[in-house]
Design a protein that fits this description.
With about 475 residues, the protein is an alpha+beta fold. The chain folds into 3 domains: about 150 residues, Beta-Lactamase (2-Layer Sandwich), CATH 3.30.450.20; about 80 residues, Orthogonal Bundle (Helix Hairpins), CATH 1.10.287; about 150 residues, Heat Shock Protein 90. Helices cover about 55% and strands about 20% of the residues. It contains 10 helices and 12 strands. The chain has a 5-stranded antiparallel sheet, with helices on both faces. Strands 7-9-10-12-11 form a 5-stranded mixed sheet, covered by helices on one side. Strand 1 and strand 2 form a beta hairpin. Helix 5 packs antiparallel against helix 6. The protein is rod-shaped. The chain starts with a helix and ends in a 9-residue tail after the last strand.
Length: about 475
């Protein structure tokens, strides 16, 4: 309603100006027009009388008759003493009397005088000019006119403007109320949607019906609600998966420890086996907890300890550490590393990316398989490709492979010690450094991971 009231006030101000300025301007124009007309008429009369040496009634009346109908309400001619020589309204009765008008007095002093008064019923106009003979004032001409024509013109204009203003105000009032209602309705609908989202109903969507600013705001709120919904779904799934991942080793540890406690005559060999299993489960629990902490650090921390990193050196280090695992799994490691592949990043983070990808390529390979690591620079990027000849990833699982705790085959991954967090860590780490990672199936079997980072230029000092 404040918008509507403000709108109405502005309209009222505009209508007031529209009703005032044209009327005032028209009255000014009419005044100037009448001034010019009466000045010309009085000048003609004075000029005609200036041929007389002395202004006497008979001679003045002859001159006035020769001028014809002057269309004036009253015409007075006085001598130099302000005595009336000629009066069109009562020529005989006023002759000889003094015209005690301020206009006449000023005209006898040699001035042109004009007075104009506007009234609702009519206008009154007065003008006076001196009559000159050889540079000497010998009399004065006084003109008076009462007219209803100008008043009628102004009254008609005022009436038309008032009618137009009333119609415009009614239309503006209706439009203001309508706009206020529509705006209020849309704002209330948007507020209801925001409150619903704030209450946790992230599936709520605000209707978008156009392309104005409110619709743009609603569209952005819908995007925000969708992201909150997705985040909430990920949170629920993360909590569920994390609980499951942590519960499984804890349940195993508890079962094994209960078995030891309840079986007093357990053989030493079986006791040693149970203790070994407890240690493995504890190690698995430790690995999962460490990866969860690492993901949390990636979520809450920014880039730190950044600097130029030679990716080939990082790959050499990671491959050396994984060579033992590759030997155990009977997998061949190959690397083809180009020169000048330098990025601006944290060396430990890049080592973690390479280590996780190559470790997965070894673990999920086949006996006698091969893992190939390619590194080269192209189009302003440093490209890292990791190919394996392993069991591959089903097509339907590829879109979810980087989700936290997502595993293609939970039983098989658990046997290999996987937690479903490694690739999520890889994706978050790569994106934190301005890169991108993708995965695809190889035609001859196996999987290809492609990682790209912005190439670092020494002159720029950053990526």
């Amino acid at each position: 309603m404040r918008y509507a009231v403000g709108y109405i006030v502005i309209i009222l101000l505009c209508l007031t100006f529209m009703n005032t300025y044209p009327v005032v301007n028209m009255r000014t124009m009419l005044c100037e027009s009448k001034r010019s007309a009466m000045q010309n008429q009085s000048a003609i009369i004075a000029s005609s009388l200036s041929s007389l040496t002395v202004l006497n009634p008979d001679e003045v009346e002859k001159v006035i008759r020769l001028l014809g109908d002057l269309d004036m309400t009253r015409l007075i001619v006085t001598d130099q003493a302000a005595a009336i020589v000629y009066d069109s309204s009562d020529n005989e009765g006023n002759r000889g009397r003094y015209a005690l008008f301020s206009e006449v007095t000023s005209a006898l002093e040699g001035n042109f005088v004009f007075y104009y008064k506007f009234g609702d019923a009519g206008t009154r106009s007065r003008a006076a000019v001196p009559v000159m003979y050889r540079g000497k004032v010998i009399g004065a001409v006084y003109l008076y006119e009462y007219s209803t024509e100008h008043a009628q013109l102004v009254s008609a204009l005022r009436t038309n403007l008032r009618s137009i203003s009333l119609a415009a105000f009614a239309a503006s009032l209706l439009l203001a109320v309508l706009l206020a209602y529509l705006l209020n309705h849309r704002m209330r609908r948007m507020v209801r949607g925001i409150k619903s989202i704030a209450d946790g109903h992230y599936e709520t969507r605000i209707p978008v019906e156009g392309r104005d600013e409110l619709d743009e705001l609603a569209r952005e709120l819908n995007v925000l609600a969708l992201r909150l919904q997705q985040t909430e779904e990920l949170r629920h799934r993360f909590v569920s998966d994390a609980s499951h991942e942590l519960k499984t080793p804890l349940a195993g540890i508890r079962l094994l420890s209960d078995s030891i406690v309840q079986n007093e005559d357990m053989p030493p060999e079986l006791l040693r086996e149970f203790a070994t299993d407890i240690g493995q489960e504890a190690e698995r629990l430790s690995r999962t907890t460490e990866k969860l902490l690492q993901l949390t650090r990636l979520d809450v921390t920014g880039k730190d300890k950044l600097g130029p990193v030679e990716v080939d050196q990082v790959i050499h280090s990671a491959m050396k550490m994984l060579s033992v695992l590759a030997t155990e799994r009977k997998v061949t490691l190959e690397q083809k590393l180009g020169e000048g592949c330098v990025i601006y990043a944290n060396a430990d983070d890049i080592h973690q990316v390479v280590f996780n990808l190559v470790e997965n390529a070894i673990k999920y390979n086949v006996e006698g398989g091969r893992v190939t690591v390619l590194l080269y620079a192209r189009d302003g990027d440093v490209c890292l490709l990791i190919d394996d000849t392993g069991i591959g990833i089903p097509e339907e699982d590829i879109p979810h492979i980087f989700d936290r705790f997502y595993r293609v085959d939970k039983a098989r991954n658990s046997a290999r010690g996987g937690s479903g967090l490694g690739l999520a860590i890889v994706k978050d780490t790569v994106e934190k450094h301005g890169g991108r990672v993708t995965v695809s199936r190889r035609e001859n079997g196996g999987t290809r991971f492609s990682v790209r980072f912005p190439l670092w230029h020494e002159k720029e000092g950053e990526a």
